[in-house]
Amino acid sequence: MTLPLLGTAVTLTTYPEIRDWICGPGRAIEIQDFCGIGVFERDHSDMISAWHGLLDGHTGPRSIHGPFFGLDIASPDTEVRAIVQKRMMQGLDVAEALGADLMVIHSPFTHWHQLNRANYPEVYPSLMSCSADCLAPVLARAADTGCTLVLENCDDTDPFARVDLVREIGHGNLKVSIDTGHADICHGRYDAPHVVDFVAAAAGYLGHVHLQDVDGYADRHWHPGEGRIAWGPVFAAFAALEDSPRLTLEVRRDLHRLPETVSRLEALGLAC
After folding, report:
1. pLDDT tens digits for 226-244?
2. What is the reported pLDDT for 68?
3. Residue 122: beta bridge partners?
């Protein structure tokens, strides 16, 4: 069996120290310098230029994490959605400039929505219709530039909600993303389904995964193996899919230890 080759999330400051480990086998990277607060409110051409200088020799797939702070794609306010669209378009500008074919965006669904789906029956249809309206021009642009948007779970406790939205919109440039840590936090704090159930629910629509470990309490972004997630069943769930999602390590600290972390996963027969 061929083990999946793991990519990693990087920034301008973290990429150089693991560049050889990334570029050698052609690992995917996810550039995360353009999702910070206020990035698109100021000139960011210097960051694009800096990345152009670093990307020579990188032949693997590229993605970016799109803007998300305060940006609700399902806002019922049309003027707010216009701002969200603007930021998403700016993210696509960056993706095009850096040769990225995938951009991560965040889910609008929360635990409150799940608890109150029957109590406020008008809310769920509104989430769907407002998200579709917000993303329509963004997806049109994404199709023109060859970029796929992937919808990442955050406070989602229903693993099918994002899948339902992607299915309802029905656009070839929109897929589902799973953050393993976010899923486990919701499993631990809200009694949501396990990570493997999020994976199974996304079958046929899963385009991307953030791999990070947690303690079931907070969004730790620890290296796989440092928290409580059972990685054997998780990778088995990936292997059971017909999809081949882009598997991206998203750890917060000590990226220089990623080769060691991946070597441990490889010794377990999970990934390389």
Report:
1. 999 999 999 999 999 998 9
2. 97
3. none
Rounded to 5 degrees, what are φ and ψ at 58?
-90, 120
Share of the chain above pLDDT 70, in %: 100
pLDDT value, residue 13: 97
8 Å CB contact between 196 and 237: yes
Residues 209 and 250: beta-carbon distance below 8 Å: no
Residue-wise pLDDT tens digits, 84-118: 999 999 999 999 999 999 999 999 999 999 999 99
Output phi, psi for 115, to 5 deg. Answer: -65, -30
Cα–Cα distance for residue pair 16/36, rounded to 1 Å: 20
For 63, the enclosing helix (H) or strand (E) is strand 62-65
Amino acid at 16: P
44, 47, 49, 51: CA torsion to nearest 10:
-150
Domain 7-267 fold is TIM Barrel (3.20.20)
Phi-psi region of 153 (alpha: psi -120 to 50; beta: other; left: phi over 0): beta
Helix axes 123-145, 78-98, angle to 10 degrees: 30
Measured CA to CA in angstroms, residue 219 lies from 11, 123, 137, 211, 251 at distances of 19, 27, 32, 12, 10
Whether residue 184 contacts residue 195, with contact meaning beta carbons closer than 8 Å, is answered with: yes
Which tens digits make up the pLDDT trace of 117-146?
999 999 999 999 999 999 999 999 999 999
On the CB side of 4, how many CA atoms lie within 13 Å of its CA?
Answer: 24
